[in-house]
Design a protein that fits this description.
Elements lengths: L1 H13 L6 H20 L4 H9 L5 H27 L3 H10 L1 H4 L7
Helix pairs in contact: 1-4, 2-3, 2-4
Length: 110
């Protein structure tokens, strides 16, 4: 949702996470596709976006949304990597073997 995207994008900037050249190219490609679709209908890009998505949606807004999505994804991926970096199969097996009674449960419903 928009809240997590905005949060992730702001945290990415705080952590000096930036877009890759490939991601920048993908954003440009998306914008070019929008421009092409607009021009095929004899619309300006912003007019076409407004017609498709509503008042206030401009190329600048779309570009910002795409950038924020990429940044947010990169931030959450980096968090996930940090969390899972120390987790190995050996750690999992050790935790399981120490606490089998907590993991080996069966619920029966009649």
């Amino acid at each position: 949702n928009i809240i997590s995207v905005k949060y992730g994008a702001s945290k990415a900037k705080e952590n000096n996470i930036s877009l890759t050249d490939e991601q920048k190219k993908e954003i440009e490609s998306n914008i070019e596709s929008v421009e092409k679709a607009a021009h095929e209908k004899d619309y300006s890009t912003n007019r076409w976006l407004r017609a498709q998505y509503g008042k206030g949606v401009t190329e600048k807004v779309v570009r910002k949304v795409l950038e924020d999505n990429y940044l947010s994804t990169k931030y959450f991926e980096s968090v996930n990597e940090k969390i899972t970096a120390g987790v190995t199969d050996a750690n999992i097996n050790e935790e399981y073997n120490k606490n089998k009674d907590e993991f080996d449960l069966v619920d029966i419903r009649l």
